[in-house]
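Methods — Computational structure assignment.
A single polypeptide chain was analysed. Its primary sequence is given first, followed by the predicted tertiary structure written as structure tokens.
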Amino acid sequence: MVHKKLYIFVVSIPKKLFRLLASFPGFYFKTILSQSAFRAVYAGPRLRHAGSGLDMCYVSETTPTIIALSRPSSTLPLSLFCNPTSQLLEHLGKYHPTSTHVHLVFNLRGETPGYLDSELYPARVHHAPWPDHHPPPMNLLLSTVSEMNAFFAFEQDDRKKIALVHCKAGKGRSGTLISAYFVAHENKTAMEAMGVFTTKRMRIGFGEGVSIKSQRRYVNYMEQWVIGMQRRYVERKVKVTTVSVWGLKGDVEVSVVGYTAVESCSRGTWEIAPLWRARGAPGKRTNVVWHPNVEAMTGDICLGVQRWAGNGWIKICKTRAWFNAVMEAAKRDGDSQQSGRFEIPWEEMDGLKGTAIKGRRAFERCVVDWEFVEQGDMEIARSIDIMNDGEIELADDITIIGDSGDEGGKLMCSR
């Protein structure tokens, strides 16, 4: 509680006041700014690098080298809590100089990166953003894992590869991607991969690194993709036909949302697209069946639940659960069938913003039925191409279809 109050107090101070205080030579506040006291409060349960004090950790110190970190920033007051870009570049220059290493930063923030790509030069930045506290679209997760593997697998010179993965706190979204990479290319199970990330990133007794159940479900999908689907994923358009809820309590809203790709700040990102919503009648607990008949552009579907009290003025419950229809269908009878079902009890729903808090119980269990509308090959239209001078370029004329294993996927060039 003390840490939370201190965080709210410091964040509420205007940026101009920070700059003004820091501009006076010898002023005691300038000494505070040079230390990592605020960063320690912000990091909370996450482990920090012992040598630099940065909010980051080496998830894999050998080949490949993967670093998980909170968002970099060069502006006040964010640089007090996050990783200052100057200190991050200083750390890379000291331990991983460009003469012997190549750096690639994976930005997973669906909000804004919080910095310009040029601020991290000579490191290059690859953007694969999705919303906070949500799992990634399955095709985005697969493509980004392939990007990372292609980066590590490409051999041009003797320089070692360093991948830096960040979201906002370097925990949920970063842990999802890193764990998925371990499953796909380091021969780990989903539980082993998430366990490694927790050990490296979190303090003992402060919970899991990947704690949101939907994100953990998608890491398990990666294990299914490797073992049960022979590394093949076909994106399919989904039509949600029926939503059935058992034990639905009064004044509860149930919704279905999906993902849509949009252009934001000259970069592609994924945003949540509402598809359908309905509200249960006030009164006693009932069993309800709805027929939304709405279509989602990808196989990623989210079931959202909210509950109100006081005639709709007080929200006492908010929870959700993401699943991928293609992966769920493959669990049952392969990916050739034309329909599927996802069933989830109340206990398996996501908590609020990564916590276990969902509010007051709204139902007992829910079942979502769907059918596939059309079928098309999954095409990932961006890949990594390393040029002769060692720099990294996103090549639009290379397409990755599926993934052929540890060789970085099957590349189809149209030069």
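Note: The chain is about 25% helix and 35% strand.
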